[in-house]
User: Fold these one by one.
Assistant:
Number 1:
Amino acid sequence: MIKMIKSRLSVKVFLLTLLLIAVCCFTTYSFILQAAPKNYQYDIEDVDLELSFLPNELSGVKKEYAYLWLEPTSEWMDEIYDNEFELHFFQADGKEVSLHDINQLVGGQITDFDKIEKTKTYTASFIDCDSIYTLLVTRNTAKHTQTEEAIQGTLPVLCLVVLLGSIISAFFYSWYMTAPIKKVSILSKQMAGMDFSGFCSAGRTDEIGVLSDSLNTLSRKLVVALSELQEANQKLQADIDMERQLEKQRVEFFAAASHELKTPITIIKGQLQGMLYQVGRYKDRETYLAQSLEITDTLGKMVQELLTISRLDTPGYTCKKSNLNLSNFIIDRVTAFEDLFMQKDLTVEQSISPEVYILGDMQLLQKALDNLLGNAAAYSGAGNQVLIKLWKETETTTLTIENTGAHIPDEAISKLFEPFYRVDQSRNRQTGGTGLGLYIVKTILDLHGAKIEIANTIQGVIVSVQF
């Protein structure tokens, strides 16, 4: 029992409330019993009217016969007014005397009745005495009232009613106070177990209701905070995975770059040593010096492209964009490649929409476009065409460069934008390709938020760029 009382708030509230209500009820009963008003049937003004004739009657008698008027008057008031009034007689010095013998003091003073309801004070004298006496009538304070007697008579029933009322009141009060607290306790336990699906509906506007609403709000905010934390963790994990992927790509890139640089350097070194020692075929120095120079040019291009990639991949690098007339820009670059197209015996057809503007870095876009036009010229056979189109739709600007007479194996298309990838190693040696051109193009277009795709067509190969 004691353990249950200690562990249950509702039991504690019930017992405490029962005790307080019982104590308050019995305390109130005691005060009512003590302070109950006297239920008098007659007004004191009625006696006042009767008393006003008594001084005149006393003035015609001797002092020793005063009791013959005072005692009958007192008895008459007791009989007529149901003992509700008392007659008092005082000497000139204010001391009360007996109604039976006015020469005998009874120990009272006239001032004793200042706070008691009483009639007017009347003066009286006797035929054989010059002393002045005072008489008045007061309420009989010793008389028990009917209310007091009724309250005392109902004490047993009242105790039972108070006890039952206290138990019922304490029960409903404890239920009213602890029911929402139990809901709050259940919700807090769920939250402690990281379960935020619960909801505390107190339906009140007092402090307990505010506590319930605050706990509900806290639960919702914790759900949002945990959701945001999970999203942040997922994003962080994605960033970590991306960083690992980039680091892996960097390692692979530098490994590939080292390999690509090592091969031509080894070739140049071998040719120079052969020419230096005049070994076999290397005695023809002019031929192999020209080859070494060609390889050196290829190395120079590769180094320049590696420097470009290093600059573009620098963390925090941003391109300097401006409002660029893409239509005029493409026409200018195609014009710059006219000699190369003529040497390759290629026909160029243009369909360029006028006044197409984008936000872009002209120098970077020039490098990207030159790479695409150079590839179109390098990988198209004589007598074929290069088709260049530019048009603008609602929110998209599209540029296509198609070179006929070419074809890329389907399994190679997804690898074209990888660094140092070549579809045909021997052909790339003839054209002087480094395998970095398309990688640089994609990096530049990514900085501009553009997309690039390469696909085979019926006529050849098409490159599509969307800004």
Number 2:
Amino acid sequence: MDSFRQAFELLFSLDKELMQIIGVTLRMSFFSTTISCILGLPIGALIGTKSFKGKSFLKKLIHTLMGLPPVVAGLFVYMLFTHYGPFGSLNLLFTVKVMVIAQVILITPIVIGLSSSFIESTSKPIIETARGIGLKNGKIVKLCLSEGRTSLVSIVLSAFGRSIAEVGAVSIVGGNIQWKTRVMTTAIMLETNKGKFSFALALGIILLIIAFIVNAVASFIVKEAKDD
């Protein structure tokens, strides 16, 4: 019980380190989700609206990447940005920027896979009508994204939830450096190992609140879309 009391005291006192960790986490998750959706939604819509040779194989590849282990993605990015790697001269290793890159590699396939499946299953009448009036592929993709924007928001929120809960990749490429690259998940792991349960609990409570808000908003959007 003391750990819970101390955890709430840390939250209500706006502990400086706690707030900094939350800030880094939200910044990393925001940028990685934004970039992943900018890349993934149009690609997913394109795959969902077109029929082409090799589509089945591409979808299997995307589904495989959707389950990519975070530590594998982290190792891959680490090898790229270490001093001996091809991008080592950029000096991005152990920064928030490289953590965002690792997250984008993990999240983009999820966005592509979910959006392509959604558009393929729900936008068939729109696609057929658009092709019938002679619209080009680019305009068909824009139309499908526009018509399904309400439900697609839930995919964006799912991507954000995936980003904020990630621990393996960001730990490898970010180094879990205090006041620099420490995020909520890596801090919880570290503080638990150190026996500082109150700090870990405070972060865990924040993560649960954020996860609840994201899921609640996603459920509300899906419900509104069905009602419409």
